[in-house]
Write a structure and sequence with these properties.
alpha/beta, 6-stranded mixed β-sheet, globular, binds zinc ion
């Protein structure tokens, strides 16, 4: 079921559904070329794509290269600004952001987040640790960041199941 921190706007949801469906389908190619199993894109309010990046923890050997971190960095570079708030941007991502990426989103000035597979399902399917994020939808609302979640989860979960079944690396530090 779709969750959101504002009354659901069908137009925004339909737009996000189309974008996230494309990201889920494209993700197979990114995985095949060595990227991690998450893909994020940032669009402006006119629907123009600003940046799109996959997770590159393994292929770039960097633990914080999650898709959201990469795409925010790319958008800030493309727009030549560390504060994206004036551009009214939305971030679309194939899974719920982890605790690190929530911080990055908050400090980037992104205005809206649309995600597919919730963290609980990501953890169940893959074994990745998504961190602890109490009431983050409410915390984002307090900061005027709109959030819609659980968009196209069926397709999103399929990509993750496929990632695991093919024996790809579920990277994390030893505990
Ligand atoms: Zn993350």
């Amino acid at each position: 079921m779709i969750i959101a921190n504002e009354p659901i706007n069908e137009k925004k949801l339909a737009n996000a559904t189309a974008i996230i469906t494309n990201l889920q389908n494209e993700l197979y190619n990114f995985i095949a070329s060595g990227s991690g199993p998450f893909l994020a894109a940032i669009y402006d309010e006119s629907g123009k794509l600003i940046a799109k990046c996959a997770n590159s923890v393994i292929n770039e050997c960097c633990s914080h290269n999650h898709a959201e971190m990469n795409v925010i960095k790319a958008a800030e570079k493309a727009l030549n600004s560390y504060d994206l708030s004036k551009f009214n941007l939305s971030l679309y991502v194939t899974a719920e952001p982890c605790m690190m990426c929530l911080g990055a989103i908050m400090w980037s000035g992104i205005k809206a987040v649309y995600y597919s597979v919730p963290s609980k399902r990501v953890e169940e399917i893959t074994g990745f640790d998504e961190g602890f994020k109490p009431d983050w939808l409410e915390e984002f609302k307090r900061r005027s960041i709109t959030v819609y979640g659980n968009i196209c989860t069926e397709l999103g979960e399929k990509v993750l199941v496929d990632y695991v079944q093919k024996g790809n690396t579920v990277y994390q530090p030893q505990r």
